């Protein structure tokens, strides 16, 4: 469960998030939709303790992120898949993350398989396509077997197979009872993936609605 309450965040004179309130419930995929610059990434960064709000709060499983004892086991996140650092191969990268977070080595092997990177686990990340980096970023997010997942535009740069793969993965994770928040600026990406939509514009809530309310009657 993610709770965002009256959250406001400014950068100088820019109000990136403006009194935003919504909850993200477990057991479904919640789409976080809004045009570029709407405040989606900023909201996620505050949830993840990477930015400090001016006012309001963001809680994960009832606590601020910086007060969670084992954050990676509680919350997994994919923010900027292009920016994977810390290891030269998927195996080295994920093993390093697992060690730093006291996560068992068995999880490293299992997430590499889960995201379909087993064949390139010992290949250099430097030569990876954006799609492969997305998979690696998702593997890192899943490493701690977290109850809550935040993914910022995970579909960017993926081919149709990759898009289908992410959709099936996220739907499966939600079906296991996890909380999944997925941002995108494209409604078309949400239609087949999200059960629920939180729509924002200029940092403000526009709609918080079940997906079925927005799909055409056929
Ligand atoms: P989205 O993820 O919906 O595209 P962002 O949260 O990235 O939106 O951006 C919201 C607004 O905040 C935009 O106007 C953006 O330019 C501004 N912004 C985001 N991060 C920074 C930053 N580090 N410094 C200054 N302005 C920022
Ligand atoms: P309290 O103990 O009353 O919550 P704090 O002394 O922790 O108050 O101060 C709140 C400060 O924590 C604010 O300046 C805010 O910017 C910062 N902060 C960082 N992350 C969060 C969050 N997720 N929710 C609320 N405040 C946060």
Quick summary:
The chain is 31% helix and 28% strand. It is of the alpha/beta class and 218 residues long. The longest helix has 16 residues.
Low-confidence stretches: none
Strand order of the largest sheet: 5-6-7-3-8-9
Q: Count of helices?
A: 7
Binned, the helix content reads: 25-40%
Radius of gyration: 17 Å
Label the overall shape: globular
Family: Belongs to the ABC transporter superfamily.
Organism: Microbispora rosea
Domain ABC transporter: 2-218
Keywords: ATP-binding, Nucleotide-binding, Transport
Description of the structure:
It comes from Microbispora rosea. This is ABC-2 type transport system ATP-binding protein. Keywords: ATP-binding, Nucleotide-binding, Transport. With 218 residues, this protein is of the alpha/beta class. Helices cover 31% and strands 28% of the residues. The protein is built from 7 helices and 9 strands. The strands form 2 sheets. Strands 5-6-7-3-8-9 form a 6-stranded mixed sheet, with helices on both faces. Strands 2-1-4 form a 3-stranded antiparallel sheet, covered by helices on one side. Helix 3 packs across helix 4 (105-114) and helix 4 packs across helix 5 (130-142). The structure holds adenosine-5'-diphosphate (2 copies).
